[in-house]
Amino acid sequence: MSRVFEPYCGAAPIPTNLSSSWNFDPVLIIILAAGLTALYLGQSRAQSGLTTALGIVVFAAFISPLCALSSALFSARAVHHILVGAVAAPMIAMMLPRNLTSRLKVPVEVVFVLHTAIYWLWHLPFAYDFALSGPWQYWVMQCGLILASVWLWTVMLSQPTSVFAALGLSVGTMVQMGFLAAVITFAPFPIFEAHFLTTEAFGLNPLQDQQLAGLLMWTVGILPYAVTAIWMVSARLMAPVERRGGS
Q1: pLDDT at 237 > cutoff 90
Q2: Residue 236 lies in a domain
Q3: Which is more confident, 5 or 18?
Q4: Looking at the 3D structure of the chain, how many domains does it have?
Q5: Residue 13 falls within a domain, yes or no?
Q6: Which pLDDT score, from 0 to 100, does residue 31 have?
Q7: What angle do the packed helices 163-186 and 206-218 form, to 10 degrees?
Q8: Which of 5, 96, 141, 198 has its CA 20 to 30 A from that of 105?
Q9: What is the mean pLDDT of residues 208-231?
C-alpha cells in the first residue's frame, strides 16, 4: 500500500510550473520577518550584513521554488539541507553569545554524537518519508536538523573550545557525512518512496536523483567543514609567528 504524501512545501512541481512554485505561508513569513527584525535591532553594520546574508539563505531554502523542488527531487532536498545545516547554521552560531558553550558545559563528544544521530535518523527511509507526510512532520525534521547544526557550529566556532577539539568536530563531521553520502550514492536501488514518482519530469529516474544527491552531499556538503578545518589549522600555525612578531 502506497503512503500518502502531503509535503509542507506543496505537491511536487514539474519544470513548467516550478518558477511559480513559491511558498507564501503567512505564518512562516511573519516568523522569519519578526526574527530578522529582532536580530537587526542594535547590530553593527558588519553584524547587519551577516543577518542579511542569513535572511537570503533562509529565503532561498524555505520560500523560493527550491522548497517546492525539494518535494520532487531528493537532490534538491540535499541542497536544502546543505543551505540549512552548513550555511545558515554557522551564521546563526556566529550571532550567539561567545560564552554560550561554557555555560552549557556539554562535552564535544556528546554534541558530535547527537548531531550525527539526528542527521542519520532523518535520512533513514521511514523517517524521511514521514517528514514529507504533512506540515508538522516536516517541521519536526527541520527543527531537529537546525538545532543540531546550530549546536555543532556553536561549539566548533566557540572561543572556549580548543583548536584540537574544534578540528576534531569538523573532521569527524566530514567523515560521518561522507559515509552517509556514500551509502546514498552507492545504494543499488532508490530508497525514498516520496520521490519514486516525482523525478521523471526533470529527466532523472529516482536512482539517478538519489545518486546526484549523494554526490552533492559528498562534495558541496562537506566543503564548509573542510574550509573551517583548514582555517583552524592555519590559525594554529600562524599563532606562534604572530606572538614572535609581537615580542
Answers
A1: no
A2: yes
A3: 18
A4: 1
A5: no
A6: 96
A7: 160
A8: 141
A9: 95
**pLDDT digit string (tens) for 112-129?**
999 999 999 999 999 999
Per-residue pLDDT of 80-112, as tens digits, reads 999 999 999 999 998 887 666 656 678 889 999
Residue 217 CB neighbours (<10 A) = 24
pLDDT reported for residue 100: 67
Domain span holding position 227: 18-246
d(CA 116, CA 124): 13
Domain assignment of residue 114, yes or no: yes
Q: Which residue has the higher pLDDT, 233 or 197?
A: 197
Domain assignment present for 166: yes
Distances, alpha carbon 133 to alpha carbons 121, 129, 205, in Å: 16, 6, 21
Q: State how far the alpha carbon of 168 is from the alpha carbons of 3, 36, 135, 175, 179, in Å.
A: 40, 32, 36, 10, 16
pLDDT value at 159 more than 60: yes
- How sure is the predictor about 231, in pLDDT bands with cuts at 50, 70 and 90? confident
Query: Which residue carries 518558477 as its cell?
Result: 19
